[in-house]
Amino acid sequence: MKWMTFDDDGTVRHGYVAGDDVIVTGDGDLMGVVRGEAATAEVGRRPLAGARILAPLLAPGKVIAVAANYQEHVKEAGHASRDQKTATPRLFLKPDTAITGPDAPVALNPITQQLDWEVEISVVIGRQARDVTVDAALDHVFGYATSNDISARSLDLGIERDGEAWTGFFDWLEGKWLDGSAPIGPYLVTADEVPDPQNLELTLEVNGEIMQRGSSTDMVHTIAELVSFSSRLMTLNPGDVIMTGTPSGVGATTGVFLKPGDRMVAEVQGLGSLVTPIVAADSRPE
User: What pLDDT sits at residue 286?
Assistant: First the structure.
């Protein structure tokens, strides 16, 4: 099923897509559905066309992201392919304020002039996972969504740096934390409709030009491996999100970055298209 959260004349509601309609099953976002606590019977029906779709989960418990998880992306950065026998996932966290939904404008924060795109498959956990095996990992997945790990490739802090060895790493990490830097949606597609998450095409366009085109076959660590590894470090709870890395074609490779007026369209095969416009800093909603 394709589940979605949407704004229904000022009330947040959720439901699933059936043809040209949204079958409304309750109020609030999809957290109750993911946890298995919400009723799924029809309580209303709305036309899908024109629906103001929100992020499937407005406040996930954790947003875990993965760096350097597509071989072609690793190579475009000038590094050798990662050895899948000895490499381990490179995880980091994004804050809840990074979450935003389809068509929601993202402001070019004045802290950077190098805002970049990263189309990704996001995984939503449906059953608590603690130290699970790779073989059992996908049993803990509720579903999948298109997402975009928007990244600041530089931080313009207005001070002279001291050149510490760790400065570059923390600039990269902090560049992942900006408000609105994790658009997700439009749908949360249940795992039964994605029989092989390791064979999905991903694309990202900026102003109609394709910047990224790749496949999840190129992942260094499979989604099952990422769920298993993450669950060894921390308990994964229903509603937690794992953003699983991006293919090649990011702006940092060519020095082309986002600017106000740009329009990104991220798409993952079968999961829907995610539109994100970039606006000026003074256009940010309060």
Answer: 56
8 Å CB contact between 35 and 239: yes
Q: Which of 4, 99, 18 is nearest to 53 (CA)?
A: 4
**CA gap 145, 239 in Å, rounded:** 12
Instruction: Please give the span between the terminal C-alpha atoms of the chain, in angstroms, as a whole number.
Output: 34
Tell me the pLDDT tens digit for each residue of 173-191. 999 999 999 999 999 999 9
Coil vs helix vs strand at 71: helix
Residues of the chain with pLDDT under 70: 283-286
Domains recognised in the chain with CATH numbers: 1-54 (2.30.30), 55-283 (3.90.850.10)
Radius of gyration of the chain (CA): 18
User: What values do phi and psi take at 175, rounded to 5?
Assistant: -70, -10
**Distance from C-alpha of 215 to C-alpha of 199, rounded to nearest angstrom:** 6
Beta-carbon contacts of 217 under 8 Å, excluding residues fewer than 6 positions away, are 198, 199
**pLDDT value for 160:** 86
